[in-house]
């Protein structure tokens, strides 16, 4: 249909504000849509943690509005980002809070974006909203802002990045309903109204023209009671309007041949330089480098939560480390229990285990480049990005068959004598036995040079570029505008 006008709303966007993968998508997808010739404009709150001076944000006049607007650009593009400056609600030390006014913060962000479009005269064809924080836009367009002809032909797409986070608030909802601008009528789920709550994500699922999530397998999983978090029935009813699209990878940022964060850039033709990255990282972290040639390095970069399968590792890793020779580097932060587990593991195996509590973008890149294997034993994983980074870096992923992990890593058959077409080690069952089998299979694969060479080569040849994935979103936009 030619060039489209797209308003892209998200609660975080890298490098301005980030807590997870949504921020990467909110930068990469609009950037790619812009490269494809579409007029895309991103909107995000101006949090107190965002440095307006460092990011060279330009204030824009907003006459007769109770908020201000600042303008920036998405890195490596000319795609504009509009920051909603609402100091009372967003000038805080954290992006998300447990404050009593948390629902009001994001209701008013949604309304401010629509009012900014009015003042900018931006007649969006598509409002692409993400997760519960922006999920009320479809309702607002049908009700509070339905009078404005600027929006009369606009369609809405709601992308679910993690169904577990729904934005459920109550029981005193009068202020919430007033901020939305509609009463607790048929616009909201009847069970929620009777229960005295409002579920932002569910409301979006009810009113958006189309739904998407971040991998095909996850789109199927969230229609089951096990992973539907109470919304599986609604999602089954809307199955014909639900599409799973795997997230893409920003290969300008994640490419071992051009990675500015690693000491020895490399490609599939210079894998000896990957080994140099491994030696350098082991040395930097104070781990034993004397047997590094024959000792595989397992890496993890993860949020330390139950979702990520750390509870399985509590039982399995001490036992496998005791009987197998390999090193482990973990970068992450999260639940106290899991931080304590990895700290204790480091104390028990000081020459082979390093736990870096926190986050470092440089170290995350270096771990991908240095590790031989990358461990992601997730309970569930809507998409995941590190397994796709690992493939590009020649680092063999060990993953559970769920969500985006199942869609991006093909199991390698080590019995095929070096002729397999898989890209990693995949285990089915979320049990200690499952992850133990996967680790043993991966370590055995490492010590089979012919098979190892094949699986590494297969992985590095995979293409998860945003250019391919963005076209699938454009196809949805076009289809929505036809009907």
What does this structure look like?
The protein is α/β, with parallel strands linked by helices and 483 residues long. It has two domains: 5-248 and 466-482, 3-Layer(aba) Sandwich (Rossmann fold), CATH 3.40.50.2000; 272-460, Glycogen Phosphorylase B (Rossmann fold). The protein has helices at residues 21-35, 87-90, 102-120, 137-142, 174-180, 190-195, 200-207, 216-221, 232-237, 272-284, 310-323, 336-348, 361-370, 386-392, 403-408, 432-446, 449-460, 466-482; strands at residues 5-9, 39-45, 58-60, 68-73, 80-85, 126-130, 155-160, 168-169, 198-199, 210-213, 242-244, 297-304, 327-334, 353-357, 373-376, 396-400, 425-427. Helix 1 (21-35) crosses helix 18 (466-482), helix 3 (102-120) packs parallel to helix 5 and helix 11 packs across helix 16. The radius of gyration is 23 Å and the shape is globular. The two termini are 13 Å apart.
Task: Provide the fold topology.
Layout: E1 5-9, H1 21-35, E2 39-45, E3 58-60, E4 68-73, E5 80-85, H2 87-90, H3 102-120, E6 126-130, H4 137-142, E7 155-160, E8 168-169, H5 174-180, H6 190-195, E9 198-199, H7 200-207, E10 210-213, H8 216-221, H9 232-237, E11 242-244, H10 272-284, E12 297-304, H11 310-323, E13 327-334, H12 336-348, E14 353-357, H13 361-370, E15 373-376, H14 386-392, E16 396-400, H15 403-408, E17 425-427, H16 432-446, H17 449-460, H18 466-482
Parallel strand pairs: 1-2, 1-6, 2-5, 6-7, 7-10, 10-11, 12-13, 12-15, 13-14, 15-16, 16-17
Antiparallel strand pairs: 3-4, 4-5, 8-9
Helix pairs in contact: 1-18, 3-5, 10-13, 11-16
Notable traits:
483 residues; 17% strand; 6-stranded parallel sheet; 2 domains; 9-stranded mixed sheet; alpha/beta; Rossmann fold
């Amino acid at each position: 249909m030619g060039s489209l006008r797209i308003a892209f709303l998200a609660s975080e966007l890298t490098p301005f504000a980030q807590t997870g993968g949504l921020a990467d998508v909110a930068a990469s997808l609009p950037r790619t849509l812009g490269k494809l010739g579409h007029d895309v404009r991103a909107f995000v709150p101006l949090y107190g943690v965002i440095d307006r001076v460092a990011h060279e944000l330009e204030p824009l006049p907003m006459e007769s509005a109770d908020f201000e607007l600042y303008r920036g650009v998405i890195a490596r593009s000319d795609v504009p980002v509009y920051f909603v400056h609402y100091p009372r609600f967003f000038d805080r030390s954290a992006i998300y809070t447990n404050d009593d006014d948390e629902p009001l913060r994001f209701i008013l962000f949604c309304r401010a974006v629509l009012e900014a479009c009015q003042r900018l005269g931006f007649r969006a064809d598509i409002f692409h909203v993400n997760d519960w924080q922006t999920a009320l836009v479809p309702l607002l367009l049908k009700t509070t802002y339905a009078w404005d002809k600027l929006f009369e032909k606009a369609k809405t797409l709601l992308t679910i990045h993690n169904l577990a986070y729904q934005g459920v608030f109550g029981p005193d909802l009068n202020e919430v309903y007033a901020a939305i601008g509609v009463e607790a009528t048929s616009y909201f789920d009847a069970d929620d109204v009777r229960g005295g709550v409002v579920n932002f994500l569910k409301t979006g699922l009810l009113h958006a023209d189309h739904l998407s999530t971040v991998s095909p397998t996850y789109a199927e999983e969230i229609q089951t009671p096990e992973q539907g978090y109470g919304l599986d029935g609604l999602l089954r009813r809307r199955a014909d309007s639900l599409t799973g699209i795997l997230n893409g990878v920003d290969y300008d940022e994640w490419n071992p041949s051009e990675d500015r964060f690693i000491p020895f850039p490399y490609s599939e033709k210079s894998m000896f330089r990957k080994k140099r990255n491994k030696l350098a990282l082991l040395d930097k972290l104070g781990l034993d480098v004397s047997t590094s040639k024959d000792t595989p390095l397992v890496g993890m970069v993860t949020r330390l939560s139950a979702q990520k399968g750390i509870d399985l590792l509590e039982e399995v890793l001490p036992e496998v480390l005791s009987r197998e020779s390999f090193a482990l580097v973990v970068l992450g932060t999260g639940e106290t229990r899991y931080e304590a587990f990895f700290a204790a593991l480091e104390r028990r195996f000081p020459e082979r285990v390093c736990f870096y509590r926190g986050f470092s973008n440089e170290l995350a890149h270096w771990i991908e480049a240095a590790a031989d294997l990358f461990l992601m034993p997730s309970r569930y994983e809507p998409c995941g990005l590190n397994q796709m980074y690992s493939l590009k870096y020649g680092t063999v992923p060990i993953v559970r068959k769920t969500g985006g992990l199942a869609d991006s890593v093909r199991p390698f058959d080590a019995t095929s004598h070096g002729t397999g077409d898989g890209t990693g080690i995949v285990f089915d069952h979320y049990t200690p036995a499952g992850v133990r089998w996967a680790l043993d299979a991966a370590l055995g694969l490492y010590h089979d040079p012919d098979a190892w060479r094949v699986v590494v080569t297969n992985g590095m040849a995979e293409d998860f570029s945003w250019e391919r994935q963005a076209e699938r979103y454009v196809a949805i936009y076009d289809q929505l505008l036809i009907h």
